[in-house]
Amino acid sequence: MQTFFYIVDSIEGDYANLKRTDIESDELKLVALALLPPNITEGCTLKYEMMQYFMEQ
User: Which residues partner with 22 through β-bridges?
Assistant: First the structure.
């Protein structure tokens, strides 16, 4: 299984724009807030592993 790391770039309505931090990329990934951990805010770091998002400490 691969692991990806993201930062929450922005939150717009029911969606968040995530930016990869483990590779060099300017592309944003649009993800429904329902798929993300509760209480995320802009600037939070997330780990995506085994088809789930986890908040990084």
Answer: none
Class at the top of the CATH hierarchy for domain 3-55: mainly beta
Alpha helix (H) residue ranges in the chain: none
Q: Which residues are bridge partners to 52 per DSSP?
A: 49
- Of 47, 51, 49, nearest to 7 by C-alpha is 47
CB atoms within 10 A of CB 42: 11
Average pLDDT of the chain to the nearest whole number: 95
Q: How far apart are CA 46 and CA 3, in angstroms?
A: 10
Query: Which contacts (CB < 8 Å, 24+ apart) does range 18-27 have?
Result: 18/46, 21/45
Q: Per-residue pLDDT averaged across 33-50, rounded?
A: 96
